[in-house]
C-alpha cells in the first residue's frame, strides 16, 4: 500500500512538472521536493526521470490496448463507442498526453501508439486488399491523421468540441477520409 502511494505521488508530481518544464529540465531533486518523497524513496522505484516517463506512458498505452481488446471482443457495438472510449482515456490523461504528443513529441511513445492504432486499422483496411505498398501507404496516412486529430484536439480543447473530434475520427477510422 505504501509502495503504491509513494509511486503514485511521484507519478502525479512528474506529470505536474512535465506540463510546466521540458523533460531535461526536471531533476530528481525537483521531483522529490514536489512529490514530498525522499530521494532514497525515489531510487527505490526508479533509476532516473526517464523511467518515470516511460512507466506513465506505458500505463496509458496499456489502457489503449485494453480498449482495443474490448473492441476485438465486441464490447463496443460500433466505431463511435470505441472512439468515445479512447477519447475518454485521452481526456483522463490529457496533461501527460499533451506533453508527449504535442509539446515534446516523444518518439518512443508515439511509435508505440502508432503501432496500436495501425494494428486496429490494418484489420479493417487490409482484409479486402493485398498487402501492397499502396494500402500500406494509405494506412500510414490514416494513422497520422488520427494522431493529428488527437494532437489538434489537445492543443485546442477550449475551442474544439469533443463532438467535432469524434465526428472527424469516425470519418478517418471508418472511411479513410483525411
UniProtKB/TrEMBL annotation:
<dbReference type="Pfam" id="PF14278">
    <property type="entry name" value="TetR_C_8"/>
</dbReference>
<dbReference type="InterPro" id="IPR009057">
    <property type="entry name" value="Homeodomain-like_sf"/>
</dbReference>
<keyword id="KW-0238">DNA-binding</keyword>
<keyword id="KW-0472">Membrane</keyword>
<keyword id="KW-1133">Transmembrane helix</keyword>
<dbReference type="InterPro" id="IPR001647">
    <property type="entry name" value="HTH_TetR"/>
</dbReference>
<dbReference type="InterPro" id="IPR039532">
    <property type="entry name" value="TetR_C_Firmicutes"/>
</dbReference>
<dbReference type="InterPro" id="IPR050624">
    <property type="entry name" value="HTH-type_Tx_Regulator"/>
</dbReference>
<feature type="domain" description="HTH tetR-type">
    <location>
        <begin position="4"/>
        <end position="64"/>
    </location>
</feature>
<protein>
    <submittedName>
        <fullName>TetR/AcrR family transcriptional regulator</fullName>
    </submittedName>
</protein>
<keyword id="KW-0812">Transmembrane</keyword>
<feature type="transmembrane region" description="Helical">
    <location>
        <begin position="135"/>
        <end position="154"/>
    </location>
</feature>
<feature type="DNA-binding region" description="H-T-H motif">
    <location>
        <begin position="27"/>
        <end position="46"/>
    </location>
</feature>
Amino acid at each position: 500500500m505504501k509502495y503504491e502511494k509513494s509511486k503514485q505521488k511521484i507519478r502525479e508530481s512528474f506529470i505536474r512538472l512535465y506540463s510546466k518544464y521540458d523533460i531535461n529540465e526536471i531533476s530528481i531533486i525537483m521531483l522529490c521536493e514536489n512529490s514530498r518523497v525522499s530521494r532514497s524513496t525515489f531510487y527505490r522505484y526508479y533509476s532516473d526521470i526517464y523511467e518515470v516517463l516511460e512507466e506513465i506512458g506505458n500505463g496509458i498505452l496499456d489502457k489503449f490496448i485494453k480498449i482495443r481488446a474490448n473492441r476485438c471482443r465486441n464490447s463496443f457495438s460500433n466505431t463511435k463507442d470505441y472512439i468515445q472510449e479512447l477519447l475518454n482515456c485521452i481526456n483522463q490523461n490529457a496533461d501527460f498526453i499533451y506533453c508527449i504528443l504535442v509539446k515534446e513529441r516523444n518518439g518512443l511513445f508515439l511509435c508505440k501508439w502508432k503501432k496500436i492504432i495501425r494494428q486496429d486499422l490494418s484489420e479493417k483496411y487490409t482484409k479486402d486488399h493485398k498487402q501492397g505498398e499502396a494500402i500500406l501507404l494509405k494506412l500510414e496516412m490514416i494513422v497520422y491523421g488520427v494522431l493529428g486529430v488527437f494532437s489538434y484536439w489537445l492543443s485546442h480543447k477550449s475551442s474544439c468540441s469533443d463532438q467535432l473530434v469524434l465526428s472527424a475520427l469516425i470519418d478517418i477510422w471508418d472511411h479513410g477520409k483525411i
